[in-house]
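thought: fold this chain, then report.
action: predict
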Amino acid sequence: MANSESIALKVRNAAKFFGTRLIFKNVSCDVRRGEIMLVVGRNGAGKTTLLKIMSGLSRPSAGSAEILTAPEKTAYLGHSTFIYPRMSGRSNLSFWASMYGLSPSRDRLAELLARVGLERAAEEPAGSYSRGMAQRLNLARVFLVEPELLFLDEPGTGLDQASLTLLRDEIVSLRDSGTAVVWISHDVNHDCTLADTVLGLSGHKTGYLGPASEFDPKSIAGVDNA
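observation:
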């Protein structure tokens, strides 16, 4: 059993209502450093809502979500890319760094862009990037922060195979370096093999919480076809 110092996120009896409509209730879990937790469930089960509560972007209607890492060491990567289309890839990265109070050198920026395969497109307007290139630029932003806790909301949606492979490899690399990762995937059957634990939402509550190696996608309605 890991000690409390290894826990990056605690969720206790979290519930969410939109008006009188129940999304989920009584969701509890711990996310540990150096662990990938895959959050699964059918469409509409509340996966993104739960991720927003976990990351502090939304408040639960009941219960709590406590982040045990520094705010500046927490990152969020979704399927939407928040790039500035008229700025170059390098300028986007430099701007994002300034928002975190960082001042990376030009060599550091070049290193990050090379890590995601964008060194040759560094000075091109980000608006000319393909979907995969734009998401890889977003991934470079995550590397800027060197996160201890990372939230992923279907970041692979719409990516070409090369970009998807790079994304998965880097997610595993972050986990192996000690980052706690909470990941909503659009390809549960594949990405479950990369995860350590699975939290499955079913019937407005936790339908499964345990090792990824023991999780059967068919046990959560709508997941086996995800």
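thought: worth noting. The beta strands are 7-18, 21-32, 36-40, 62-67, 74-78, 149-153, 180-184, 197-202, 205-211.
final: tokens above.
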